[in-house]
Every structure is written in structure tokens, then in C-alpha cells.
Amino acid sequence: MVVGDISTGTELLVIGGGPGGYAAAIRAGQLGLDVTLVEADAYGGTCLNEGCIPSKALIHASGLAHAVEHAESMGIHARADVDLRGLVAWKDGIVDRLTGGVERLCEASGVNLIEGRAEFVDGNTARVAHGGEGQGSESVEFERAVVATGSRPVELPGFEVDGERILDSSDALSLEALPESLCVVGGGYIGMELSTAFAKLGADVTVVEALDDVLPGYGDDATAIVRDRAEELGIEFRRGEAAQGWAEAGDGARVTTETGAGETNSYTAERVLVAVGREPAADTCNLEAVGIEPSEDGSIETDDATRTAAEGVHAVGDVTGEPMLAHAAYREGRVAAEVAAGEPARLDHRAIPAAVFTDPEIGTVGLDAEGAEAEGFDPVVGEMPMGSSGRALTLGAETGFVRIVADAETGFVLGARIVGPDASELIAEVGLAIEMGARLGDIAGTVHVHPTLSEAVAEAAANAQGTALHTPNR
Ligand SMILES: Cc1cc2nc3c(=O)[nH]c(=O)nc-3n(C[C@H](O)[C@H](O)[C@H](O)COP(=O)(O)OP(=O)(O)OC[C@H]3O[C@@H](n4cnc5c(N)ncnc54)[C@H](O)[C@@H]3O)c2cc1C
After folding, report:
1. Is residue 20 within 6 Å of ligand 1 at its C-beta?
2. Whose CA is nearest to atom 9 of ligand 1?
3. CA separation for the pair 200, 236 (Å, rounded)
4. Whose CA is nearest to atom 7 of ligand 1?
5. Which ranges of 233-375 would DSSP assign to H, the alpha helix?
6. How close is the Cα of 469 to the center of ligand 1, in Å?
7. Is the CB of residue 40 below 6 angstroms from any atom belonging to ligand 1?
8. What are the residue numbers of the active site?
9. From CA 267, how far away is CA 260, in angstroms rounded?
10. pLDDT in tens, 389-428
């Protein structure tokens, strides 16, 4: 021990206070374990401070401003003057409220909170360096540990983030003034969500994507709907072009790109947002000391009980790789705590949904028809277009569909893809169906409130059975 060091003991040490870590800590506290949670930066992690919550606040506010200005068909003629500082202050208030809530919830469950960076020293000891000069460090003896150190943005060579010309998603969520033009490098979900928000606020947005299309993995038809709408909003897409570098060009950055065929192009924008994905942060807590070696993609491998190669050490959330989603991290944190407390908890990845908060939204869960076939099912598919939903029409949002996949023989629900307003909310019904082993008839036979978007989920299930009332049956 270093002279002047203090030493404490705990049954469960949790490293990282994001969704994975704080869920593990709170649940372990509920189960009666003595828990210590160490956070190096801000409680709530990426999700609450610079991810899910702030981005959804920006997306909602930009959608509101845009909707107000584009409601002539409803007889509404209005102008929205957006004060970005005011918007960001509102967003910061939400973040403060939620991050403060995480601290209070942890304390209410008896979790000891330590602010600092934790590193393993050996299989039962970690050292926590407190932030700032002269703040000292302390040792924590632990019986079991949960690594929940999260992820960070992937760096793109030639695009060093400076917070001025070249931004990462965190910078983009805290701008003081709206850029006149924005070049977004990367058309994954973060790039597409932020592009949509900035286009709705009035920026000229260009999306540069190296692949043939944006939003890989969400289905060609869903992607095409979102891309078409984005183009209507004025977003320009440069697909199949890899960003190579940038140079100052007067009052902007000139971004150069190269196509697969070797053709070069350039686009000038006031700011450039780099959103080319995130990578696990498995190098922040000296994993070697407990004998964990990250795999090739930098993530920590775990089993379905969140156990790692090191006895008594669990890993949860983004540091374990895809799906890098907050709700997956929450679930894994909960399972880690329960397993650490000796309960028979397990992860079931079949019903982990995903959502993209674009316009319209995309929600997915479980298998699509091809995936179901690949797993040996004989799939039956039911669909309800949003254009046939009375509620969607009253919202002025008739583009999209609900598609449900089930096993033809048994009717067991296997998955869904939803494109449309509130798809991120609607997908939960199908997630529940998969989780509880429900059949098409359970969804179709449940009376849904009229007029709601959720009726479209029931109609899609009925369509798969040949009994839909509001769309032709297949
Ligand atoms: C712009 C953006 C939008 C997003 N939107 C969504 C969304 O809509 N829905 C969704 O599900 N997901 C979304 N995500 C992803 C989501 O934020 C992550 O999946 C989630 O935060 C992962 O949680 P985690 O606990 O694994 O890690 P994190 O939230 O990254 O937390 C890890 C924590 O560990 C701390 N830490 C790291 N090393 C140490 C150490 N050695 N000692 C102490 N502390 C340490 C870090 O400071 C951090 O606070 C978004 C991400 C971004 C960037």
C-alpha cells in the first residue's frame, strides 16, 4: 500500500457508473450486497450525459420547431425562432436532473459511491485515483467485481476532434450556435439521428457514408423510407464515399472523399461531425491484473451470466461489444448483480429491441423473415401500412409500416420491424410477446385503444392470420 493511502473493503466493486454499472450497483444493493461503485467522470455515463438522453432532447426540440413551421396543411401558420443556447440549457437541465437521480438512487440502495478512476491491482484489490492533482488514491479490497467501463467514439484518421471544426457527438449536442452547414461523416444511427435534428433546425446537412447505404442492419425498406424523408428535409447523401481528410477553407472545412472507384470529391461545411461508431473502453482499468485479455475487437467476452474469463469478475454494457445499447447494458447490469448475489439469472438476447430516433423512427426486435428461415422456422409475415392507420393520419405521419414475423405452424411471435411515429415505443409490445412466448392471436385478440398507433401492431398480427380489417389480407 502507498503511504497515506486509505483502504476499504467491499463485497461487490462496480467500475463505471453508466447504465450497466449503476444498474448492477443498485440491484446488488437491493439484494443486500455491500456495493462500491467507482465513477471516473459523471454518473449516468455516456447515456445520460452525452448519448441517449441529450440526443433525444435535441431530436424532440428540433422536431417540435420543424413541425410548427410545417403545419400549413393543418391550417397552422407559424414561425419557430430557435435559440440554440436556450435549447441546450433545457437539455442540460434534464441531464442534471437524471444524473443527480442516479446518485440518489444508488445511495438509497446503500451503494458506496467513490469518484475516481479504478484500476485492478490483483484479483482482489483495485486502486482508485481521485480526480485532480493532490487528490490522492485509495485501495478497495473486493470479493467480486463488475467491469462497466463503457465505450468511446471511434477516431477517424485525418479527422482529429477539436470541438471547433471537427466535432464528435458530445460536441454536437452542446453547440452554442446552429452551424449554417454540417458535414456528417458516418450514416449509422447516431449520424442519422443528429443529421435529422440539425436539418430540422435549419442547417444544410451532407451525410458522407463509405458503405452503399446508411443505417446498415435496419433493413433496406426501413432505411429507404428514412433516407427519402431525410432528403425531403434537405439532407444530401454521399453514399459509397469514404472521407479521407479535411482542410481549412476560409470559413469552413473542405472534406475530401473517395469512392470505391477512386474518384475524389469534396464538400465544404462550417462544421464536421464525425460519427463513425463506438469502440469498447476495455483499457481503462488494467484488466491484465485480473487475467482478462480483450478480444480482437477490443471487447470483453462474457457468457450468458455476464461472467468473464476471470473468476468472480463480470462485465456488462458497451465494454462487452454489440449491441452497444443502454437497455442492453441495464439488463446485463441487473443479471451481473443477481448472479453475484448467487441468484440463477441469465441473459436472453432474443428480445433485445433496437430503435433509431429518426423521422420516421425505426423499431426492431427479434428475427426478420430471413433470420427466422435461417433458424429453421417456416415464417409467416403480417403487415399493416401506417397509411391505413387512422391515428397515423391524424398525426400527419402516414409513412411506414408494422411488420410482424411469426412461426407459421405454432403462431409464436418471432420478431417485428416497425417504421413510423413512435416506433421506438410500439416495438415494446412485440418484445413482450417474444419474451412471454405469445402467439399472433394473443396480439391480434388483445383489444387496443382506438384510435392509436398500437392498433397497427394488432392489425399486423391479424394480417399474418388473414383476419385484418383495415388492410388487405395476404
Ligand atoms: C449520441 C449517442 C446517442 C445514443 N443514443 C442511444 C439511444 O437512443 N438508445 C440506446 O439504447 N443507446 C444509445 N446510445 C448508446 C448508450 O449511450 C450506451 O449503450 C450506454 O451508455 C452504455 O452504457 P455502459 O454503462 O456500458 O457505458 P457508459 O454509459 O459509457 O458508462 C461507462 C462509465 O464508466 C466510466 N469509467 C470508464 N473507465 C472507468 C474506470 N477505470 N474507473 C471508473 N470509471 C470508469 C466512464 O466515465 C463512464 O461514465 C447512444 C450513444 C451516443 C453516443
Report:
1. yes
2. 52
3. 13
4. 52
5. 326-340, 369-374
6. 44
7. yes
8. 450
9. 17
10. 999 999 999 999 999 999 999 999 999 999 999 999 999 9
Ligand 1: residue of 13, 49, 52 to mutate (most ligand atoms within 8 A of CB) is 52
Residue 185 to residue 163: CA distance in whole angstroms: 15
Burial string for 275-308 (b: 16+ CB within 10 Å, else e) reads bbebbbbbebbebebbebebeeeebbebeebbbb
* Residue of the CA atom closest to atom 13 of ligand 1: 52
Please tell me the distance between residue 190's alpha carbon and the centre of ligand 1 in angstroms: 13
Answer whether 336 contacts ligand 1 (Cβ < 6 A): no
CA distances in angstroms from 448 to 56, 456, 459, listed in the order given: 27, 9, 10
Most distant CA atoms of the chain, gap in Å: 77
- Closest by CA to 246, choosing from 235, 257, 237, is 257
194: number of Cβ within 10 Å? 27
Please identify every stretch of the chain with a pLDDT value under 70, giving residue numbers as ranges. 1-5, 132-133
| Ligand 1 centroid – CA 98 distance (Å) | 14
Residue 358 near ligand 1, beta carbon < 6 Å: no
Which residues does residue 278 pair with via DSSP β-bridges, in sequence order? Answer: 153
Whether the upstream peptide bond of residue 451 has omega within 30° of 0, thus cis, is: yes
Sheet of 166-167: strand order equals: 166-167, 271-274, 181-185, 204-209, 236-239
| d(C-alpha 25, C-alpha 306), whole Å | 14
pLDDT of residue 3: 45
Give dist(CA 198, CA 205) in Å, integer: 7
| pLDDT for the residue numbered 414 | 98
Name which of 340, 342, 300, 307 is nearest 321 in CA terms.
Answer: 300
What share of the chain in percent tops pLDDT 90? Answer: 96
- Tell the residue nearest (CA) to atom 34 of ligand 1: 16
Q: How far apart are CA 48 and CA 465, in angstroms?
A: 41
- Within 8 A by CB and 6+ apart from 447, the residues are none
Q: Is 437 exposed, middle or buried (0-12, 13-18, 19+ CB in 10 A)?
A: exposed
pLDDT at position 133 is 64
CA nearest to 38, candidates 124, 131, 100: 131
